[in-house]
Amino acid sequence: MQDEIRKFYQSFSGKRAEPLEQDDPRYVPLLEEHPGIDPILKLWKRIDLAESESVHLLTGYRGNGKSTELKRLKKLLEDESQCTVFLVDMFDYVFMTKPIEISDFILSLMAALSSLTEKQTGVAGLTSFVKDRWEKFVNFLNSEIEIDNIDIKLPVIDLGARLKTDPLFKERIQKYYEGRITRLISEANKFVASLVEKIQDGNQDHKVVLLVDSLEQLRGVGKDAKDVHDSVVELFSGQARNLSFSRLHIVYTIPPYLQVLAPNLGRTLGGYPVTKWPNIHVRNKAGKSDETGLNLMKRLVEKRFPAWSAVISLDLIYKFAECSGGDIRNFFRLLREAAISLMIAREKNNDAILTAQMVDRVIQQLKNELLPIAEEDARWLAKIHESKDPSLRNVNSSPDLARFLDCNLIMNYLNGEEWCDVHPLLVDEIMKPCKEKD
Fold first, then answer.
1. How far apart are CA 366 and CA 378, in angstroms?
2. Cβ of 9: how many Cβ atoms within 10 Å?
3. 6 vs 312, 319, 344, CA distance in Å?
4. Nearest to 99 by CA among 226, 252, 255
5. Per-residue pLDDT tens digits for 190-203
6. Are 85 and 78 in contact (CB under 8 A)?
7. What does the domain layout of the chain look like in residue ranges?
8. How would DSSP label each residue in 207-244?
9. CA neighbor of 423 nearest in space, from 326, 347, 349, 335
């Protein structure tokens, strides 16, 4: 039995918990009950109908299945629209907790695109073509600024890796290109245009699409928080015109807080509405359980570990689903921690089961990471909980609301209409000041 618990645990951890392809047997279509409001289908249609080039924005909380849905979008574009699609994980190229500027972002994006086109597409002669164009691009960089220890003969990913892991190198790039970004943008556009032209091979109706994942993980931590948030606003709002490329259709993922700090962003960057991928609808506005959403969470479990009932009860699956607020990553975490508790108990008693006390400890462990909440913040979150709308406390409070969104204290749902609520494990805590006042 211990072996079964081990397999259960491993089914929700490591690579088994990573984003899935749509044809993976473990994949669960999360909005199959509501195809008319499926954000990914709408995003696919916008790209399918777009002419020339286009820019689209996709947002969603870390851990709610957005990256898996990006892979679904890729498949739709390839299978239904016959597009050439590149999906890049910018986590491999960008330092997610430090300020970002247009200079290092464009360099990271070009490095990612170059590396990806070499590996992914089957276009004849593209590998040597990309290497040649990349060499010219890096020669331009070397003519602009002395970049030490960068050898154009090395794999292109080296530049992206250095921008992610070497803060001094990144700072040097940022400082040099302050006020002189025009030439870098021009060369980047030439680089992209040459790749698109090569892939299209004379057929300008053939769409080339770049999906840029993981940028929703750009977040401020500690004393750098405001600087990071300000830099993300400047990148996607102030530098919006530099984020589009001729004849390339591009989707950028963005942090949920960006819409608070830079309202009407879709109009500024591409003219399309921001696509939002919601949490699974495990509760309604009244806080009552939603059976459809809970069953989706159950399907996530049974698809990954069909023999789940030998380890955990259905009631506990539903309870963990509710406590996660429909967040897949935290849901998997609760399942793993429950498996650990059960395994420890079974070492002493082969017949041990998950007790209420064991389950409460697992849930409390997650709750402790969301606390403490300052009294002033608790009152504000209580108003958001009651209104289901993430309204600002005052004109100067947008950074604080961004912090709530960044830390997943507020969760987004979609069920015919869009609404939000406070994380379910915080509801009792934030309502205490209100009850005490009453």
1. 18
2. 21
3. 13, 21, 11
4. 226
5. 889 988 998 898 99
6. yes
7. 2-13+281-370, 31-276, 375-437
8. -EEEEEESGGG----GGGHHHHHHHHHIIIIITGGGG-
9. 326
Q: Which helix (H) or strand (E) segment is 414 a member of?
A: strand 410-414
Instruction: Print burial letters for 115-129: b (CB count within 10 Å at least 16), e (below 16).
Output: bbbbeebebeebeeb
Residue with tokens 């069909």: 306
**pLDDT higher than 60, residue 372:** yes
pTM of structure: 0.89
Residues 6+ apart with CB under 8 A from 188: 106, 109, 110, 137, 245
pLDDT band for position 145 (50/70/90)?
A: low
More confident residue, 318 or 16: 318
- 217-231 burial, b at 16+ Cβ within 10 Å, e below that, comes to ebbbeeeebeebbeb
Q: Which residue has the tokens 């897949």?
A: 328
Using an 8 Å Cβ cutoff, are 402 and 229 in contact? yes
Phi-psi domain of 435 (left: phi exceeds 0; alpha: psi -120 through 50; beta: other): alpha
117: its two tokens = 């086109």
pLDDT tens digits, one per residue of 292-326 = 999 999 999 999 999 999 999 999 999 999 999 99
Looking at 325-393, list the stretches that DSSP marks H as alpha helix, in order from N- to C-terminal side: 328-348, 356-370, 375-387
The token pair at 187 is 């060369």
Phi then psi dihedrals of residue 410, to 5 deg: -115, 135
Q: What span, in angstroms and rounded, lies between the C-alpha atoms of 54 and 81? A: 15
